[in-house]
Amino acid sequence: MKKISLKSEKFLLWAIILASLMIRIILIFIYGNNLHLGSDDLNYVKSAVALLKSGVFTFHNYNEPTVFVMPLYPFFLAAVFKIFGYGFIGMQAVRIIQAVFSCITIYFVFRISKKLFNQKTGLIAALLTSFYPPNIVTPGYILTETLFTMLLYILLYYSLEYTQNPSIPGFMFLGVIWVAATLCRPTVALYPVLLFFYMLIRFRTKAKDIIVPGLAMAIPFILIITPWWVRNYREYNEFILLAASSGNPMLQGTYVGYKPTPENIVYYKLGDNAFETNKTEVKVAKERIINEFKKDFWGYLKWFTLGKTKHFWGSTFYWKPYLGISTEFAIAYHYFLLLGFIGIIALLFKDFATYILPISLVLYFNAVHCLYMAFDRYAYPLMQVLSMFCAYVILKGISTIKHYIISRGI
After folding, report:
1. What is the C-alpha separation between 194 and 215, in angstroms, rounded?
2. Among 179, 198, 203, 204, which Cα is nearest to 189's?
């Protein structure tokens, strides 16, 4: 396969990124505050405004401190609102910054794909990521998705980079990005397990040789997250590692198809505050899981595995049409990217060690959300990994067709 010159590679990559940025900016200026879901996004804005006005970190209620969400995104919003205000201009400033974050993600998707495969795969992956409809629209939402996704792909790229040439400064940097991603979304907290498994498999690193890199990652993580632990203990008189928001999604996830019925719905007493209610919901959810497994073990296991996985990947985080892009087109694009699973399966057998880190990230997120709630919004940060493997499938398909034509003399 003919190699693209470095100059052409840079031109094509920046052309993709700049075109993608322009589309995002146009969408933001056309729709403005119409880019909302009327749910978590409004609560994040309320949280940031409360931080500016009172210095209290809240989420659902202004008068109640929260541990329901991690603090990085509300603090990011508060920083932007501090400069631009929390009116229309401030909201647009957030959206424009997030559009830039989205383009930084595209850049790292290219870098990761080039490292794992080659430059052509990287350019196709960047192209697929750039114009995937949810990636165009989501930077306009005041949600964690764009910031978290950027941090996740920075973490993934430098993980591949620093495991090839391990150093204490390199792993300390990984620790900083890891804690930033965790303070945005707690799902990524166990990422080092995936990383060190990759080192064991890919580079045959001895277990004892992982201790120093592990400490190098852990030290900045602990130093940066400690104020969060102290604050939570001060507010609730107990140690809260990350966030206390698992109760409601865990309980909702116990209902097959997310459809509680009058026959199976469980009623419970609300606590004195959201934290106490969450504890009750966790307890009720665990009781329901035990009882439902006793009633129909294999049927309930199917729901917690295949059933939730179908909800996770079966639709796309594109709930409203924008710029004339229909939901039907977005869903078709989404299913095209899911061809990446063909590449994942093929490469697991072909070269397990090389590709296990991004693949394990997909499997890990899928498994975690199957324990609670799994739906398209939570799969959004993983679609860039699917884009990489979809790009591989595209190029492999083209190469196979060319080989067939030449061998047949067509």
Report:
1. 16
2. 179
The alpha carbon of 301 is separated from its chain's Cα centroid by a whole number of angstroms, namely 25
Alpha helices by DSSP H, listed for 303-382, are 308-313, 327-337, 340-350, 352-371, 376-379
CB-based contacts of 175-181 (< 8 A; 24+ apart in sequence): 175/216, 175/217, 175/218, 175/219, 175/220, 175/221, 176/220, 176/224, 177/151, 178/217, 178/221, 179/220, 179/221, 179/224, 179/225, 180/72, 180/151, 180/224, 181/148, 181/151, 181/152, 181/155
Tokens of 161: 């980079």
pLDDT tens digits along 186-237: 999 999 999 999 999 998 888 888 999 999 999 999 999 999 999 988 888 8
- Token look-up 């890919």 returns 202
Angle at 212 (CA atoms; ends 209, 213), nearest 5 degrees: 90
pLDDT score recorded for residue 301: 92
- What is the DSSP secondary structure assignment for residue 296, as one 8-state letter? -
Tokens of 24: 């995002």
* Residue 410: predicted pLDDT: 63
CA distances from 240 to 70, 187, 197, 369 (A): 11, 15, 27, 20
Q: What is the pLDDT of residue 6?
A: 83
